[in-house]
Amino acid sequence: MNTAADLTSDGPRTSARHLYWQGWRVARISELLDIPAATIHSWKIREGWADASPVQRVEGALEARMVQLICKDGKEGKDFKEIDLLGRQMERLARVHKYDKTGREADLNPNINARNEAPRSRKQKRNYLDDDQVIALRAAFDDSLFDYQRVWHEAGIKHRIRNVLKSRQIGATWYFAREAIVDAFENGRNKIFLSASKAQAHVFRAYIVQFVKETCDVELKGDPIILDNGAELHFLGTNFRTAQSYHGDLFMDEYFWIHGFQQFRKVASGMAMHKKWRQTYFSTPSSFSHEAYPFWSGELFNKRRPKAEREEFDVSHAALAGGVLCPDGQWRQIVTVLDAAEGGCDLFDIAQLQLEYSPDEFANLLMCMFVDDSQSAFPLSLVHPCMVDSWEVWEDYRPFAPRPVGDRGVWIGYDPTGTGEDGDGAGLVVVLPARSENSKHRVLEKHRLKGEDYQAQADFIKSLRTKYNIEHIGIDVSGLGEAVAEHVEKWFPTLTRYRYDIGLKSRMVMQAQQIMRKRRLEFDAGWSDMAQSFMAIKRELTASGRQLTYTSGRNRLTGHADLAWAVMHALHFEPITGAAEEGTGKSMMEMYE
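The chain above was modelled as a monomer; its predicted structure follows.
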């Protein structure tokens, strides 16, 4: 029941009217509001309270509550949900008024027109949701959010540009995909999804299609997806020529891993230049040396202005944890894995993650700390050129075909660093090798097999036989590696076992560095975890101080660079003298000799 304070905030006459319509006697209303009974009787007669229809009484209550919520400062997620609910009720009442005038049942229930359409006309509707389905989609979206995602939603309503630095795996891509499709159906706004690669951008599409299918049992079709109301959803990589011809709300995913970010953003932001379009940037951090860092830190904004007009930017976690509107008009926020846990996300075991990752890796991947890669064996400047938009560049690769590269041979690298459920997971890659010094090694697939026993890991490797013609399998036989190797050897007797020592690790790293310097390695630009894996490998002195070795913070309990080592296990099959010429089986150096 409303309190006296709640009621009087609406004005005494409005409050008295609401109470009367709720069934209160005039005398009791007078006592509650401390207003003379004669005054309330006068209002009652003059405004015809007793003669009001049920619809009028409901409309009055809806109006008062809607105004109260709109004027409220510091709205919460439940407030936005209630505003949306009240708005839908007002729309229904508008249909009731229309029905009162026309007597047509179709004005009361628009679905009747849809049901009366000819079957052929109904079948022609593509990517269509009726009013009730859109309402269900909105309700499912609202009910699925964690607290920090509600903050993103509120910021998207208030601010034109959102910029979020985030932990891995807290549901950012998932959230923004849902936010976008709900708004597209409700308001008909175009959406443009950009990532480091087109394959990564299509993660948005997968989330959208799945959400609508699960909620409304409607499967969205097409690429781009064009809704029945005219809204277009485009899923793009970093191809400038493709990207610049569209207009709509912009979502840029993992922008701290995009090569040539400044040029790309200049083109991409032009797609959302009109004030009605919104821009959303979100990413896990990479390196201080990445060209997106000045964009995040505000340095780029100040660089473009006279000294007298430059502003102070505090981009520390303490300043941005709650989200702040900054001097350049961007709303910024930092969301670490701990922030996500406090915001209701129960998907993480923080203590276990601290065991699985070294302190530096935990800080970078989960606590939103940028990497100083000056000591890395594979700094970002070396790794970045390897990151390509595979769907655009690899014209001979069919990722969804039963045999993605036909009968061409592939190399498999495997780093079984996991030790069961308490381990960090094994890394596996499939590499299409270069066949000449002018061609490139391409990493076609990557997998991290967490919580699997050695038999399951061996079976997964064996399952790749149906997709690829396997020429080489390289396995590190430490930990579970020997047990996995024994099972794999039964059907692939020529597998290569790698037993790590300082010399072998150094040769592997130097060979991979050489291949990268010559721009002979490529993997999908959306694989930021692959880039992070290489960057995690550092040069260190051995305990004796006499030799240089390479470490990735791994021991029995920690580790993350498994994907990078797996790639090196595959690449090490190439002779140190270089790739074999196509069809000869000999290296280039051997041919010249």
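DSSP finds 29 helices and 17 strands in the chain.
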